[in-house]
Amino acid sequence: MSEYQYYEFQAIDQPLDKEAMDALRNLSSRAQITPTGFINEYNYGDFKGTPLKLMAAYFDAFLYVANWGTREFMLKVPLRLVNYDLVKEYCGGESVTAYRKGENVIFQFTSDTDEPEWEEGNGWLSSLLALRSDILNGDYRCLYFGWLYCAQMEEFEDDEMEPSVPPNLGNLNDSLVTFVDFLRIDNDLVAVAAQNSASTKVFHMVDKEALGAWISNIPDREKDDVVLRLIQGHDPHLGAELLQRYRNRMGENQDGRTIVERRSVNELIAKGKIYAAERKKRIAEKKAKEAARIVRKKAVVREKYLNELGKREDQVWKQIDELIDTKRPSDYDSAVQLLVDLRELGIKRGKEKSFLERLEGIREKHRRKPSLIERLKKADLIK
How far is CA 167 from CA 28, 83, 122, in A? Predict the structure, then answer.
């Protein structure tokens, strides 16, 4: 199998300037470089740059896919806009890491598999980018899922307790569904994790009237500072910062944690296996019921067909003779199928003996037609 590697970086908060683009071009002569992104595919060789360093210097998101099974995803957000103490709870495994880089924190998620399949990298990052806004809005579900993947990969001791459980684990948006798929997290384990997750309002939704009242009470000096920062345009996260201040002021739980009894890694994994077994059992039972329903439906249709056939039995015997006389293989097949139907009808009506007598007459009449005789034997009509 040939080698395949895919690298994609995305600049969201601030576009790349010429100096940055020139520096990136020195790392790759073939890459697609724009003010907002860097994409390169390798079928041989390797990338000269270090993704983590490039994230710290230029980019806000990164994705890597290799055909030997490695997948990697990074997000960078301002450190001041996350609950770093909580972040550390989620990022304690080998596959999920949080790096403090100056005024930012970079989340790195890595997934490997022993049974790789060829996977194109294009399209993954655009489906995952919304997770960055989720984090900035206090939605840490992707971080919890990162911890869950580490538990799945046996990176913790059995008695280690899970971190704070975010709400709405049972109601995932498209980006989170893609994230679970990208990291290869066991969906049964996700379902078990969601059992301790409350359902709450969407994180980014706020009461407009309450927000307006809060804004009207902001001191004029602070408002002037906000307007100045807005005009200067140097802070793309001004809105997220103000919303956090509003939520803290209103007493809202910014990170959405729910107070529930935490489960150990061993308990989660064990419950995941039980859930998987029960799910497979439910699927098997559903398939069995559906199969039985189809059998019943076919039986009803068959019964109706045989009843209609019985009303014109003499005409059917005549039709069989006509089909055989054509000496065409396809007509032989049609004749044999009609004979099979008449046999079933004869058994159903207790007239099998009469059927066999007429069948023997056909056999004797057409004994010199080996192709027909072979078809009759194959249909188990004669020996």
Answer: 43, 16, 31
Q: How far apart are CA 90 and CA 74, in angstroms?
A: 15
The C-alpha R_g of the chain, in whole angstroms, comes to 34
* Residue environment code for 10-23, b if the CB has 16+ CB neighbours within 10 A, otherwise e: bbbeeebeeebeee
| Tens-place pLDDT, residues 9-49 | 999 989 999 999 999 999 998 899 999 999 999 888 788 89
Tokens standing for 94? 């080998």
Say how many C-beta atoms besides its own lie within 10 A of residue 38's C-beta: 25
Give the number of C-alpha atoms closer than 13 A to the C-alpha of residue 102, restricted to the C-beta side: 8
Task: Please say whether the beta carbons of 231 and 126 come within 8 A.
Answer: no
69: left (phi over 0), alpha (psi -120 to 50) or beta: left
CA distance 20 to 82: 27
Beta-ladder partners of 100:
105
DSSP 264: B
What are the distances in angstroms from CA 240 to CA 94, 315, 382? Answer: 30, 82, 83
Q: Which amino acid is at 296?
A: R
The domain segmentation of the chain, as residue ranges, is 5-203+256-280, 312-378
Query: What is the total residue count of the chain?
Result: 383
Pair of tokens at residue 270: 């064990």
DSSP-assigned letter for residue 117: -
289, 173 contact by CB (below 8 A): no
Q: What is the pLDDT of residues 186-217, one digit of tens each?
A: 999 999 999 999 887 655 566 677 766 666 76
Q: Strands 61-66 and 71-78: what pairing? A: antiparallel
What SS3 state is found at 302?
Answer: helix
Measure the CA–CA gap between 180 and 141, rounded to whole angstroms.
Answer: 11
Helix axes 187-194, 265-311, angle to 10 degrees: 110
The helix (H) or strand (E) run that includes residue 72 is strand 71-78
